[in-house]
Amino acid sequence: MQINFADIPWSISQDESKSLLKEKGFKSEKCDDDTVYASGSLLSLNFTSYLRFDSDGLSEVSLQLQAGDDYWATFERVKNILTKKYNNPDSGDDYYSAWSDTEGNTLSLMNDKDYEVVYIIYYAKRKAEALTEEIMKQTRDEEASAEDLL
Question: What is the pTM of this model?
Answer without folding.
Answer: 0.81
